[in-house]
Amino acid sequence: MGDRWWVQCVGRCAGAGVPCWWWYVVLVCRVLVLVCRAGGGMSCWCWCAVLVLMCRAGAGVPCWCWYVVLVCRVLVLVCRAGAGEGRGPVLEVIVCVCEAGEGRGPVLEVIVCVCEAGEGRGPVLEVIVCVCEAGEGRGPVLEVIVCVCEAGEGRGPVLEVIVSRTNFISHHTQRKLRIVGLSTAVANARDLADWLGIKNVGLFNFRPSVRPVPLEVHIAGFPGKHYCPRMATMNKPAFKAIRQHSPDKPVLVFVSSRRQTRLTAIDLMGFVVTEDNPKQWLHMPEHELDQLISTVKDENLRLCLSFGVGIHHAGLVDKDRRLVEELFVNRKIQILVTTATLAWGVNFPAHLVIIKGTEYFDGKTGRYVDFPITDVLQMMGRAGRPQFDDQGVAVILVHDQKKHFYKKFLYEPFPVESHLLEVLPDHLNAEIVAGTVSSKQEALDYLTWTYFFRRLVQNPSYYGLQDDEESSSGGCNPTNRINQFLSDVVDKAISELEDSYCVQLGEDNRSVEATTLGKISSFYYLSHKTIQLFKETLTSDISLEKLLLLLTLAYEYAELPVRHNEDNLNEQLAKQCPLPVNACTFDSPHTKTFLLLQAYMTRLPLPSVDYLTDTKSVLDQSLRILQAMLDMAASAGWLATALLTQLLMQMITQARWGTDCTLLTLPYITPAILPAFTHPKTRAAILSLPELEHCIASITGGERRTAGALTTMLGDQLSATQIDTIAQVTDGGN
Fold first, then answer.
1. How far apart are the first and last CA of the chain?
2. Residue 484: CB partners within 8 Å, gap ≥ 6?
3. Residue percentage of the chain with pLDDT more than 90
């Protein structure tokens, strides 16, 4: 039974473009690296490796795994929470719980982690492994880690630290871990293999031609110095590409930002309206569409869906995003305009992929930068899925100055370099807090486990280790030069942490120990620069206004994008906010954060739809930063500051200022409704939640008839359903 199942599985994977003989390696090799283009079958082999884990978990029950797979229930959990002490990552965790039938063995849990480094969160400092219960009484066995080897991109330091720590743990615990690395084409795949410990067998670097579906690529250049006008000129050619290459098949349009998803979708909708059949991209009955649209919260999405155009980005509420995904996968809508992050996420089928612009706005540098080549290849790989098409088409719309670059280097693999040095202090702080590193020598030893160490030897000039002629002529040993360079790197990183009050050196100037602030930085996953700012600014008598300003000055908000002309929007918003801002800083991400929080607590209308998604990004991080503030105030013994921090946390949670009437925290209650809160008998005004609870208790005699009492007060202002909701809140959800 098991052999037949494996033959079928291998046959399917072979159809995905990878040779059949590789299945043996999947079963036997402990460490693997598979390098091929997107669409070349990497996902199939990834899941083959997971299935191998599931098989081995069954131990003495050879057939158990096959039946478990058939009854697998997949629970997708998006979890943003701190892990154990000294780490505190931000993760998206997918937990597949495979329930074994009666007599088939224990429940198996496979955890696949996607580490996010975007939107100011920085690198993830935690290793998550797949834990498999190997049988009754055997305890957990560390079997497989599935990771993506893209050590040279924005998430590079994340993956580099994860794999380095994994190898470190495996070496010191003498417990073998299986690592499967998946990557697009790279020029130095051998370096990746050496880093992962692959010797003779286990590295597979396939040519770009290894792809199950032929891909036809078109590249077009567009003039224009300014980004937004150039993006607007691409909309008409994108519409023509849809008509020419995929008039009736699914189309993915990748753009660089959430704003561009909206603008592009609206323009495409405007073009199709002028056609003879304006509903040609919609493949579902009107009455069914009307029912679905009535549940959509995003106004732009509601408008575009009626013409068969979907919008997909992280700023949508989960319900809207899932609806768009289902409609596109089920071919109910033909066009999906999405941000580039979708290319690395859900695998949606599409015959045509349009990449509208190869630049994105980097909030940290305040300018537009190019997408990595790997991202462009990943987006192209979404065209022509094997199970849907026999050919795929990719249309790349670029700045005319970069057209020849993409023609020449699109299929030319680039070497992967390490970017660990840029964020080394934060990683080193986490290792010091965890106890992995307790001296400068141990910090040097830690670096030898990283990919950075291997590339430093191969390409020293890239990392600032100059091959000067004087040292060479003087007979300087290259090994000594590298050792000295690494010592300088460690000294610089520890010096930065010491200046940020995160670590302290011992009397011997070699040992290093984490401070309380260093533990707070690692536990709440904050940059050491933020901790330094709080240490030097937070006082025992700080005011609420200054505390709010200090929150927005955190380093985590430095990457909040300030787009074109948003400095003018910030100036307009500042006139409505209660707290003043520096008029010279309207183009600062920290000023924008300050204004967004004020507008959120004042409940002001925002000047742009993009500000809604930006507000969500700001709120996602605010409580974590405030919790670190609270711990710092508590450790310093500042009771007033700690209480003020808690008040600010409640203000952000309730979206109200501390001076607002507490009745405004109830659902549907606005300042215009407040006069209706009066005692039915005495007509005395009710000014707070405690007074409201006391009034209801006096009316009902202590019985739970809150809805009736509220109806007496608010029956003329609110509906019965709204009053029932308020009653549930005041009763504590009972």
1. 53
2. none
3. 37
DSSP string for residues in 604-667: PPPSSHHHHHHHHHHHHHHHHHHHHHHHHHHHHT-HHHHHHHHHHHHHHHHTS-TTS-GGGGST
CB 636 within 8 A of CB 533: no
CA 544, CA 650: separation in Å to the nearest integer? 13
Give tens-digit pLDDT for 286-317: 889 889 998 998 889 999 999 999 999 877 88
Report the chain's C-alpha Rg in angstroms.
29
Give the whole-angstrom CA distance, residue 272 versus residue 265. Answer: 11
Of 62-71, 107-116, 559-568, 725-734, where does the model show the most confidence? 559-568
Top-tier CATH class for 215-409: alpha beta
Cα–Cα distance for residue pair 667/663, rounded to 1 Å: 9
Q: What's the full length of the chain, in residues?
A: 734
Which contiguous run of DSSP H or E holds residue 430? helix 424-434
Average pLDDT rounded to a whole number, residues 656-675:
90
Class in CATH terms, 538-654: mainly alpha
**Cβ neighbours of residue 122 under 8 Å, at least 6 residues apart?**
423, 426, 525, 527, 556
The most distant pair of C-alpha atoms in the chain lies apart, rounded to whole Å, by: 99
Go through 395-416 and write b for each residue having 16 or more CB atoms within 10 A of its CB, e for each that does not. bbbbbeeebeebeeebeebeeb
User: Which residues 6+ apart lie within 8 Å of 257 measured at CB?
Assistant: 339, 360, 361, 561, 563
Neighbours of 506 (CB within 10 A): 11
What is the residue extent of each domain of the chain?
2-205, 215-409, 420-510, 538-654, 662-730
Instruction: State the fold for domain 420-510.
Output: Arc Repressor Mutant, subunit A (1.10.10)
Count Cβ atoms below 10 Å from residue 203 Cβ, excluding itself: 20
pLDDT in tens, 586-627: 999 999 999 999 999 999 999 987 898 899 989 999 999 999
Residues 330-362 have pLDDT tens digits of 999 999 999 887 766 666 778 999 999 999 877
